[in-house]
Design goal:
The structure is a single chain. The protein has about 525 residues and is an all-alpha fold.
Length: about 525
């Protein structure tokens, strides 16, 4: 691919740099969330729905990545992906119609994953000549998770010091850098001598699955604001999502080459892996709900302070990727224990915030729980993705990876955010009622009394108590799951554990015992 004058030792690092450029790109940047909301007079839910649309575009595109790679030249795919991302970033700063913004973000997600896949697939043999996914996935997550943290930090910096549009222009500049590298340093090249045709791709099936994911995201994203099923919009969308699901299943079972083949769902352990990933994402949604509320409403931090504090998670992410590589490749230990380690770190993160949350806490004390959060998230992402690769054949791996990323990227997270939002509303009202019963009301009626300042401190304290309670639930769930996986990793426990019989077997045994009792009574 490269022109002869490019040094051999520099070539793979150019693609690592381009992978970072694609991962730093997006279409909506949460670091500038408050500035975006204030200027456009939109709700927080509107912006997060743009983010979910972007993630949906990334997740749904996985099954066609190799078809694209084997049909087009690598240079063409990277240039088009970069140009599409640049165009989407420019359009996002100009368009104000929300459904159109969601469509722009969806297309940007497809371009982002196509560019990242091209860069990483080109250097896979450089990373691991034997194509060992235990090596490739940790290296991939170093790039992915580092870019996620950096994206929030630079967008917060640009939104505070300049304008939230600056993040988009910065990404447009990165995409132009990718185009320049491809234009001047590479030549058109495709790994397939005979181009693979694009006929037979079930694009309508992909549209159905994407629509279903977006409908679920809309329900749980706007549910708390619309008061859930008391709203006619949520009821209508719930009914139409069932129709969409029926359309997805109908195409899957009747079409000769569906987007997701029915056989893909029959692999052993696929559903448990998806459920574990969804639960982990739901628990870690506390980062986007509880942490943000604590920083903004209780502590009064600006977005730059919050996202700068989030960079400490990198100190946990990088050792976690190294540990995953050692665990899966060098030591070849049980993956159940690795999952247990990841969940234990999530429990440590929740426990740290549980004991530290208060309106007088020193900011430096929050660094250790954030490091544990980064460590746990990286370990869980790598171990579960590696487990998925181990149980799937190559024919169905990218289909399952698409479903996995639906759960990984936003379905688990949006459901977790909805549960935390409901929990805040419930516990906040409960705590206010409980604590006001212990107030010395005659003392507060003395004059002069700063009622406004007192109410502000009281509500802030109640919010801190509410956040503490929800972190307690995260601690319980992640702790018990960690203990369960650790016990399951012990062969003696796993092989000797008594299995509870099915209800049919229980019923038949009861009938047999009743028959024996009748015979015994006759003999008497």
């Amino acid at each position: 691919m490269f022109r002869p004058f490019v040094p051999d030792g520099l070539r793979p690092w150019i693609y690592v740099l381009q992978a970072y450029c694609f991962q730093l790109a997006g279409c909506v940047y949460l670091g500038a969330l408050n500035e975006m909301i204030g200027e456009r007079s939109i709700m927080r839910e509107d912006v997060t729905m743009c983010l979910y649309s972007n993630l949906a575009g990334m997740a749904i595109y996985f099954p066609v990545l190799f078809r694209m790679k084997f049909h087009f030249a690598n240079r063409s795919l990277l240039i088009v992906s970069a140009l599409v991302l640049a165009l989407c970033n420019w359009l996002f700063t100009e368009v104000t119609f929300l459904p159109l913004l969601w469509a722009i973000c969806f297309v940007a997600g497809m371009a982002k994953i196509q560019g990242t896949f091209e860069c990483m697939s080109n250097i896979q043999l450089w990373l691991t000549p034997t194509r060992d996914m235990g090596v490739f996935f940790p290296a991939l997550h170093v790039i992915l998770l580092t870019s996620i943290e950096l994206q929030g930090w630079y967008s917060a910096l640009f939104g505070t010091t300049m304008h939230w549009h600056a993040s988009h222009w910065f990404v447009i500049g990165l995409m132009m850098l990718v185009v320049a590298v491809q234009f001047f340093l590479t030549r058109p090249w495709c790994p397939m001598p005979q181009r693979m045709p694009l006929k037979g791709i079930d694009w309508l099936g992909a549209a159905f699955w994407s629509l279903l994911g977006l409908q679920i995201a809309y329900i749980f994203n706007y549910g708390d604001w619309l008061d859930w099923w008391h709203s006619s919009a949520v009821r209508l969308l719930s009914a139409t999502s069932l129709i969409t699901l029926a359309g997805c299943l109908h195409r899957m079972w009747t079409k000769k080459q569906p987007y997701f083949e029915p056989r893909m769902w029959t692999y052993r352990h696929l559903v448990p892996i998806l459920l574990i990933m969804a639960v982990a994402e739901g628990l870690l949604a506390s980062e986007h709900v509880l942490e943000e509320i604590f920083y903004e409403e209780v502590m009064g931090y600006e977005s730059t302070t919050s996202f700068s504090l989030g960079l400490w998670s990198l100190i946990g992410i990088w050792p976690a990727c190294l540990l995953s590589w050692l665990w899966l490749v060098k030591w070849r230990l049980n993956v159940y224990k690795l999952i247990a380690v990841g969940l234990a770190c999530v429990a440590l993160y929740a426990g740290g915030f549980y004991f530290l949350v208060a309106d007088y806490i020193n900011i430096e004390l929050l660094r250790l729980p954030i490091i544990c959060r980064g460590f746990g998230y990286a370990v869980l992402s790598i171990s579960l993705m590696w487990s998925l690769h181990e149980i799937m054949s190559f024919d169905h791996f990218f289909q399952s990876l698409s479903v996995f990323n639906f759960m990984h990227m936003y379905i688990g997270g949006v459901i977790g955010c909805a549960l935390f939002a409901w929990g805040i509303r419930y516990y906040m009202a409960d705590n206010i009622i409980r604590y006001t019963a212990y107030l010395d009301l005659p003392a507060y009626t003395a004059s002069p009394f700063d009622m406004g300042g007192w109410m502000e401190r009281f509500v802030s304290s109640m919010l801190a108590v509410t956040i503490k309670q929800l972190y307690g639930w995260v601690l319980y769930v992640s702790g018990f799951l960690s203990i369960g996986f650790f016990l399951w990793s012990i062969p003696m426990v796993r092989s000797k554990a008594r299995k509870f019989p099915t209800w049919t077997v229980v019923g038949l045994n009861m009938l047999k015992s009743m028959g024996r009792n009748k015979v015994y009574k006759r003999k008497q």
